[in-house]
Amino acid sequence: MSSIAASAAPKATGSRSTRVLGVLTLVGMAVTALFGLVVSPPDGQLGETIRILYMHVPTVSVAYLAFVITAVGSAMYLWKRSEFWDLLAASSAEIGVLFFALTIFNGMMWGKVTWGVYWRWEPRLVATTVLLLTYIGYLVVRSIPTSPRTRGTVSAVIGLMAVVNIPITHKAVDWWRGLHQSRTIFGTVDPDMQGTQLFTTYLGLITFLLLFAWLLMHRFRVAWLAERAEEVGLEGAIAERRAEGVSGTSQGGATA
Amino acid sequence: MLAMSTGGYIALAWIVTFVAIGAYSAWVLRRGRDLSQRVPEEERRWM
Q1: pTM score, two decimals?
Q2: Contacts of B9 in chain A (CB under 8 A)
């Protein structure tokens, strides 16, 4: 009985590893919310708005990581021509777009409180917009009906070109003077941040990395299943046409 | 237009982030469940 249950194929995209990751992510989210909204004191300079940064920093870090994985997957696809790398790149890009859009939204909330406006056309925000639009374009190109090989090749080239925007976006605050504050992670604010604030920032970061791993595994499996479902559909349609051809021939033979 | 307090913007940032991630996760899981029914068992072996 147990051996039958163990060998049964999963009914969805879950597995033991995703379940463990899922539980850890949920616990991490709850603890991050507790620390970010309740335990962490307001910042000396940023005041209460530091609580927005507890979401802003993890989302942008995950988005950058997702886009880098897209670039690696794209390069590997062009080299190996393996479906695995193509689907990994695409899955990661989709998650990256979600997290990057959330980064911009959180930034707008922070901007409204700090600057008094949701948006300013300053260097970091312009570069951010270009980056988001590039990856939306990547996803749009992937949705165009064509052969998997053409789709994989074209999107891999875009995936490789798009990643160049990340260092430009990240360094925009250093290269051009704008309103946006200096880099928070791997940047200059960290030395001033300490104690509970620093702990909350890194707790959020680790939690969102776990969330990204969980989402990427599920999204990759969905992409894999979608390809297999399309193949099954195609094979079914071909078999149907063949059956129609055979019955048409036999009917033609009977009348002749 | 109603002016929102700092707390309102903080709450909005957190709520939108959590709701968007939750909605996307639910969509991915549901799509995975739907597609699994259309794919043979041997193609559904996860590590």
Answers
A1: 0.86
A2: 49, 52, 109-110, 112-113
